[in-house]
Amino acid sequence: MPRVRKLPEPKTGNPFVYKIEYTPWMRVKLVLGMILIFPIRMIFNIVLCTMILISVRLGAIGWKEGKHLKPWQQFLMLYIVPHIVRAWLFLSFGYYHITCKGKRATVKEAPIAIIAPHSNIMDSWMLSLFTWGSALSRRENEPLPILGTCLKSCEPIWVDRSGAKAVSTVQQMKDRIQSPGMWIPLVLFPEGTVHNTEAVIGFKTGAFLPGCPVQPIVFRYGQPAHGLWSHFGHKLPVIFLITMSQLYNAFEVEYLPVYNPSKEEKEDAHLYAINVRNVMAKALGKETTNFSLEDLRITQLFVDAGLPKDTGLIEFNLINNIFNVRVGPLKEMAARFIEMSTCKCARVGREEFLSYFCWPVSEHANLLFDEYNTCADDQDRMRYREYVVGNCVAERNSCLISAGQSASMPTCYSTSIILAPMIKIE
User: Is 148 in contact with 141 (CB distance < 8 Å)?
Assistant: First the structure.
């Protein structure tokens, strides 16, 4: 019976790791900037941040979910706040010249704006210069004193991540889209997380479920991108310090043509998301990758357990497309893999694997390990990625056996490989 033997290796490295390699001259400039530039910019930063927070606070007063801001609040957010933000970026961060290419579509032409890559601490502020847009944000952000206030001033759609509320979120998006001119446009970062921009990671499908036209918008920062923010890189205070200590920082935004979905794309949000991502990646001159937000969530489990950062990278989008597996089972597999890895490294050895299931070394036990471990560079040590694929293949074969379709499978494979991943033998 045919089964997946080996998936292609990722074309790009870990998208969630980023640290600038500073040359000696760059270090000298950075130290001089911290001494001569940073103190002056910090004064501007305090003054202008206070002005922004007061303005945003006024813009959010009295706002209730599902309601519009008052006309004077809309004027404040649309015409006053962007000028304060521009002064803040100019005086506090050295963004002296910001380049804008293309033309922003109207709300009727494209009710949703899609932005990528999401990579920098300045993304949201840059966005506020060109588009006052409404965002989707998790419900937990609502009571936060600063972030929650900023979001409320943009008439957000609060997202409850429980399954029961998912349909309600999509319906709110559709209601706004079907009322052109009444709501400000939705502006979304479909990647769902920040990364190092080596490639464009997988898009979440939420922005594409309504099936309406979208306008892709791409962000480009100067290199090296001092404000680039990734989960396994510099901490936020360090990023702000480095960015504010630069003499000059560069930024460019480009509005791409409105993307009108085909009939097939309207019916398949996943296909729609992939095609829009390909258009944006081409404009950026970047590759696409099968890594996604789910890879980061799984990777964090391994990092918390003391394993290397690359351990949990499985290219979730690729695995999900083949096996239709969800994050929950993958986290359970990760927990088992962490238990197996007694040496706390990125691979599990043959003996660790068999010992975890309390199996003696035998021909059949070794065959089981070999069925899992398809990694050619180390036949005696298995990665989490191979372990996941082996479990998914085993689950698929288990369903076929239940349906009476296992006649062509070797006996040792059809029995042991199905039970081993799921049951720890006591």
Answer: yes
The CA distance from 131 to 113, in Å, is: 9
Taking the model in full, what pTM does it have? 0.85
Residue 263 burial (10 A CB sphere; 0-12, 13-18, 19+): exposed
| φ, ψ dihedrals at 70, nearest 5° | -65, 155
Residue 20 CA, chain-centre distance (Å), reads: 20
Q: Note whether 22 and 30 are within 8 A (CB).
A: yes
**Cβ atoms 288, 195 nearer than 8 A:** no
Q: C-alpha 102: how far from its chain's center?
A: 26
Pairing of strands 381-383, 186-188: unpaired
267 class by beta-carbon count within 10 Å (0-12 exposed, 13-18 middle, 19+ buried): exposed
Cross-strand bridge partners of residue 18 = 233
Angle (CA) 401-405-410 rounded to 5° is: 75
Token couple for 184:
């400000």
Beta-sheet pairing, 186-188 with 112-116: parallel
d(CA 15, CA 80) in angstroms, rounded, equals: 36
In this structure, how many other beta carbons lie within 10 angstroms of the beta carbon of residue 274?
A: 18
Question: What is the tens place of the pLDDT at every residue in 334-374?
Answer: 999 999 988 888 888 888 888 888 888 788 778 878 878 77
Reported as type and span, the H/E element at residue 157 is strand 157-159
β-strand 251-255 against 214-221: which pairing, if any? antiparallel
- What one-character-per-residue DSSP string does 167-236 give? HHHHHHHHHHHTSTTTSPPEEE-TT-S---SSEE-PPPSGGGTT---EEEEEEEE-SS-TTB--TEES-H
Q: Which helix (H) or strand (E) holds 113?
A: strand 112-116
pLDDT digits (tens, 9 = 90+) for 279-307: 999 999 999 999 999 999 999 999 999 99
pLDDT class of 376 with cuts at 50, 70, 90: low
Contact in structure between 93 and 244 (CB atoms under 8 Å): yes
Asked if residue 382 lies in contact with residue 348, where contact means CB atoms within 8 angstroms, the answer is yes
Q: Give the 3-state secondary structure of residue 124.
A: helix
Residue with tokens 């899992």: 372
Distance CA 151, CA 137 (A): 8
